[in-house]
Amino acid sequence: MNKSFIPFNRILMGPGPSNVNPQVLKALSKPALGHLDPQFIELMDEIKSLLKYTFKTENEATFVLSGPGSLGMEACLVNLVEPGDKVIVAIGGYFANRMAQIVEKIGGHVIAVKETWGRAIDPQKFEDAFKQNPDVKVAAFVHAETSTGALQNAKVLSEVAHKYGALVIADTVTSLGAVEVRVDEWNLDASYSCSQKGLSCVAGMSPITFSARAVEHIKKRKTPVQSWFNDLNLLLSYWNGPGKRAYHHTAPSNQFYGLHEALLLLKEEGIENSWRRHKENSNKLVARLKEIGLEPLVPENERIPNLLTIKIPEGIDEAKVRTDLLNKHNLEIGAGLGELAGKVWRIGLMGYNSSEKMILFCINALKDVMR
Amino acid sequence: MNKSFIPFNRILMGPGPSNVNPQVLKALSKPALGHLDPQFIELMDEIKSLLKYTFKTENEATFVLSGPGSLGMEACLVNLVEPGDKVIVAIGGYFANRMAQIVEKIGGHVIAVKETWGRAIDPQKFEDAFKQNPDVKVAAFVHAETSTGALQNAKVLSEVAHKYGALVIADTVTSLGAVEVRVDEWNLDASYSCSQKGLSCVAGMSPITFSARAVEHIKKRKTPVQSWFNDLNLLLSYWNGPGKRAYHHTAPSNQFYGLHEALLLLKEEGIENSWRRHKENSNKLVARLKEIGLEPLVPENERIPNLLTIKIPEGIDEAKVRTDLLNKHNLEIGAGLGELAGKVWRIGLMGYNSSEKMILFCINALKDVMR
Lengths: 371, 371
Hints:
Distance between the termini of chain A: 37 Å
Strand order of the largest sheet of chain A: 2-10-9-8-5-3-4
Oligomer: homodimer
Strand content of chain A: 5-15%
Largest sheet of chain A: 7 strands, mixed
Number of helices of chain A: 12
Helix content of chain A: 40-55%
CATH architecture of the largest domain in chain A: 3-Layer(aba) Sandwich
CATH class of the largest domain in chain A: Alpha Beta
Largest interface: A-B, 79 and 79 residues
CATH superfamily of the largest domain in chain A: Type I PLP-dependent aspartate aminotransferase-like (Major domain)
Mean pLDDT of chain A: 97
């Protein structure tokens, strides 16, 4: 105590946070700005524009929440769901379960479409739920389920939901920047993400976007949005100027510097190039893992490229492996979560870390501690 | 666009953010850590301990929310207030109004004790409201009302509320670290603050504390807490270990580095010394302002030392003065808010900025642009 904190220089290859691009770290230390400074308003506008690029959307209601991805999840649900609304939630993992919990807290009625953990949601099951519940208002799913490593076919799920007139909420926390996400083309009505995974930024911010249809729906709600902080009507008065920025909260200027730099770097690479890089490095990592006897849980065509769930081989003390990786190699990988606790490791290869150098580092460290 | 963002090196003497201590800025750029890393858990424990020192409390439920002060406001209210509860809110400014708005969103019944903007709440009026509403569950006030410059007598208001069996929520956003705040001695049941004012840190975090009585009250609620992100039961499972940290959200490691450093610096100075420094420099600033014909709005014994509301003299274009200060001197001061828009400037002298050097800078800049 009473000493400045000096973190270890960890290699973060768990489910996130991932390592931050050094240019982003540098940006964090710049002098703070007031949240209504004209220069800060310009920065907000640039972030909006860069986020539109990143989400592949023209949605005017595209901005960043001043809190982590789980705040983004609550923001999407609390704005689009009213007490009493029926909400279909496709659940094949821990984070979709959280969506259902939030819907219940709002007073919505959850219709769960359950899938085996580690598999993508079956679109037929999803459609059956709509057939049985034609009055569903909102459908929600986790595009890249961080707890299982399964990637949904977001385009198909969204088509199904819209066929039945529902609004679609997609969690893109683990996919944005690293895996193909096309908000407009896939017709997603609301999506939220995080800053510390595919974007190579520090944790604590939630990029978010709402379609014009979603914004219209929120304006026509019968009941006020339960949350003040997350009320989209108030947030848009702050974010969507010009000339009429209404004070909402004190935005974290230095966090925004970091996000801006991270988004610039992503645009410089080109988002399609980033998606390709993540896919290629993922294939290489899987091949190397197989060489040392480790197998992914998720079938190849349903797998999140940048986050692999790896089956723990018989007779291995999984916690000891993780502790040894941390203590001997400064390498963090993730434990299983929920139903998969003790059954898998989670290895992330995302953003700044998605490179051959990191694949080698990870494989060598694993070989060493599993010897 | 497509260029790294380079903020002006502004002197921030508005209502906050205030300038960040350079050591804190430096801490932000250290390598990121995972939110469940043993070293990060240690950091969280140190932050808890430093916040207890700062809040003058032994409350076990003392930690930091991963979002700005207004999220802290919502967290206190949404945990302590149930739909249908009567809540007395002492309202003499913009931020107390916000408290009332949040209570209404929760479905609580607001009993407003209204005070003239720029004056401290009259304890007699406050007590009268309890006499007329003996079934009030919760009372809330803003200790240092950032919109008016008025400081409440928190100790007396808290005594009144407890006399009638209510739980007390105090907003210490503008007071913590700069003005005397004694959570335990004053018997405050919940209090939240921010990071970017008296603590000389970057914006985006909300230190928060709940008394054992408040925690007990929350556990006995009849209805679940409406918010998932702000549900104290879930937050405490993450913050209060050891050995049983349940994942809640991905904490912003680099923001926490900054807060830790800022709290260490405050402890190094000694919090009573910090209170004294703010008071002494405030007196000096007021004296110098009077020399150039500027008068504080709030009577001396009700004034927030670190945030002055200054009456705008006849015939002065207040917006032009602020713009000139910004453009010619890189100096930000605040405009009036709500009822006081156009009637006052708000000049903050807090944290790292509370020094003679800054007083001189501010006076000279004001003299120059008002010439």
